[in-house]
Model the fold of this input.
Amino acid sequence: MVATESVTIKVPVGMSKYLKSMNSEMELIRNALLLYPYILNLTISHGGAAEILGIRKFQLIDIYDKLGYSYLDMTMDELDLELETFRQLKKKEGAE
Done:
């Protein structure tokens, strides 16, 4: 379980009723969406956001995919880099 803390944010009055009682899945989706703008502007990576949320990167990518935010909107060079990183991680897992 990831450590949490409470923060206060300003939202429109009509929105607050939707934020008061959420199950853990809805909280995860909400928090993932709060991080998404920082992924888009390259402040944080998908992996970094997933780490903050206490989930694996592929789980976060799956959440975004189900919401219509495609992970594969990258250039071929970026995709090649991601694939190489994945291969290196798989090699490390196999060596352990």
Observations:
- The domain at 23-95 is CATH 1.10.10 (Arc Repressor Mutant, subunit A).
- Residues 76-95 form the longest helix (20 residues).
